[in-house]
Specification:
The complex is a heterodimer. By secondary structure, chain A is mostly beta strands. Chain A has no helices and eleven strands. In chain A, strands 2, 4, 5, 9, 10 and 11 form a six-stranded mixed beta sheet that branches. A five-stranded antiparallel beta sheet of chain A has the order 1-3-8-7-6, with no helix packed on it. Chain B is mostly beta strands. In chain B, strand 4 and strand 5 form a beta hairpin. Classes of the chains: A mainly beta, B mainly beta.
């Protein structure tokens, strides 16, 4: 089975940097995703890590360590619009479709 | 290019009733996944359909069922509704679904969801 842990809530200041951690335990692994979900809206894809290391995409970066079952999402130059839930998700081996999601980290950006 | 369309957006039912939700994936896509989202459990996988066949199923009771039509539109049905079925039901289409050369990396494009309230 799959087990994904991430903090429930975080607060950060506008303009700052925040790191959202995710640990996972899976019976197989094909990739790790991060999604952003604003309140009342659908989740939207942010990043995808298959290999160990850092993937950078503008203000957002995602890191993966497969041996440690660990990932983090790094948000730089925080903006008020970044207030949202951030979902860590894992794609198991042989079953791309059966993506397992963490419960999400609700990030509040304050002035 | 239209996105994933779900109907209805909101609905209220009472315990014991049944409900049918509809999802039309991205035009040309053949795969549809359904998820249930609740505050306590987060996003949980229900099932996935590809070309009218159910390929994967999550750990939900038999009250939850689905199907997919030849035009790729999908429906899910929940019978004998319980209070705990109140949730946001999300439908998703794999971003990598591009017809014959389907490469599903797991990246999903979600619809706006159907919010079900069971009283």
């Amino acid at each position: 089975g799959q087990n994904i842990d991430q903090p429930t809530e975080m607060t950060a200041t506008e303009g700052a940097i925040v790191q959202i951690n995710c640990t996972y335990q899976t019976s197989g692994f094909n990739g790790l995703f991060w999604y952003q979900q604003h309140a009342g809206e659908a989740p939207t894809f942010l990043s995808y890590n298959v290999l160990d290391g850092l993937e950078e995409k503008g203000r957002f970066s995602s890191f993966l360590s497969r041996s440690k079952g660990y990932s983090y999402l790094l948000l730089k130059e925080l903006q008020m619009k970044d207030s949202a839930s951030y979902l860590c998700a894992v794609s198991p081996s042989g079953g791309y479709q059966k993506v397992t999601f963490g419960i999400g980290t609700k990030l509040q950006v304050i002035p | 290019k239209a996105g994933v369309t779900q109907t209805p957006r909101y609905l209220i039912k009472t315990r014991g009733q049944q409900v049918t939700l509809s999802c039309s994936p991205i035009s040309g896509h053949r795969s549809v996944s359904w998820y249930q989202q609740t505050p306590g459990q987060g996003l949980q996988f229900l099932f996935e359909y590809f070309s009218e066949t159910q390929r994967n199923k999550g750990n939900f009771p038999g009250r939850f069922s689905g199907r997919q039509f030849s035009n790729s539109r999908s429906e899910m049905n929940v019978s004998t509704l319980e209070l705990g079925d109140s949730a946001l039901y999300l439908c998703a289409s794999p971003i990598g679904d591009r017809g014959p050369n389907f490469v599903n990396t797991g990246e999903l494009f979600f619809g706006e969801g159907s919010r079900l309230t069971v009283l």
